[in-house]
Amino acid sequence: DLQICQQRTPTCCTKKMEESYQAAVRRERTQSIQALNFELKYMIVGHITAFQEAFESLLRFAENHTSSLFETAYRPMAKEAAEPVKELFTDISLYILGAETTVESAVLRFFDSLFPLVYSRLINPGITDLSEDYTECLRLTRQDINPFGHYSKNMVTELSKSLWASRMLSQALSLGIEVINTTEHAALTKDCSRALVKMQYCPHCQGLTLIKPCVGYCLNVMRGCLASVSELDAQWREYISTLEYLSNEMAASHDLETALTGMRNSINEAILHAQLNGPHLSATVDKVCGQPKQQEGNLSPDNVVPVKEAAETQRFMMAHASLNNKRREFINYMKRSRTFYASIAERLCDGDLVMRDSSTCWNGDDVV
């Protein structure tokens, strides 16, 4: 009653043993593919972690660098500006990790929050009544009167260029893991598992436990079994090229580090522009939002956050170098894996599975 290992001579196999062999080849093939995938997956997962760590270091530096602008140049609003600055960098971090948001919405939300502070602490430092309604009116007015000139739009443009490549690379790395995980657990067809049993275990039914498959026979069986996986070859090569392109984009004109550290200067120019146009802005705001209560003399700054700049520069340089090195190492490794899916059958038939340097091997029907 054998279905796979049908023999002309007496055999020790039974139909139940054939079923056990089919379960065994499915398990072994999954383990073999997982072993092949391990190094590739390890490299991608490791790079995702290293990329995110280096990126977080750059973000922390850029956030502290930006906060120090308020702590040194705009002390009257330093304490209140801390929260909008923090929100801006949180939004940027979420954007790179793939959240459904845009750089433009993050930057403009920041400037919406910044305008009431600039208006009440720098342009009209005597304002005492900054009610919720008045603050909201200032926020909405910002969108119409554009107090920060072209600097807010320029900041959106610069950040969008550099953060786009980082976001795409982050998503591409996650996609790579998804592809590898899917191919690891690709189900073997019934014909495939039967062919594998015939190749690996049918010799056992004749008592030939030491005979291994012939190399050519193994390749034919594996290529048939992995036809759907090897079809990924063209897309995988294209995927590697895309990773290379995105990596080069990050390192070239859309340099992430330069854009993040340049935010401080963009914000400073925007605030100076608003101050220079203070009288015009005040006249417009008074028409739209009404006149707030005034107090004679300037308000004294209270609870200003301490400056924390010097020690961060060293960490930034290290994070910058780390990100560039990891990027280069990773791309060089991935380029070597271009043929991963094209050569998967050859790699599975390598090593202990087949008979090498011997005059006898199993061809599916007999020892030859």
Automatic annotation (TrEMBL):
Function noted in UniProt: Cell surface proteoglycan.
Membrane topology: Lipid-anchor; GPI-anchor
Entry keyword set: Cell membrane, Glycoprotein, GPI-anchor, Heparan sulfate, Lipoprotein, Membrane, Proteoglycan, Signal
InterPro entries with a match to the protein in the record: Glypican (IPR001863), Glypican_CS (IPR019803)
Transmembrane helix recorded as keyword: no
Cell compartment(s), UniProt: Cell membrane
Pfam families per the UniProt record, alphabetical: Glypican
Name of the coding gene: Gpc5_0
Gene Ontology BP, a term: regulation of protein localization to membrane
GO cellular component, one term: cell surface
Similarity field: Belongs to the glypican family.
Top-level taxonomic group: Eukaryota
Keyword Cell membrane tagged: yes
Chief localization: membrane
Protein name according to UniProt: GPC5 protein
Native source organism of the sequence: Urocolius indicus (Red-faced mousebird)
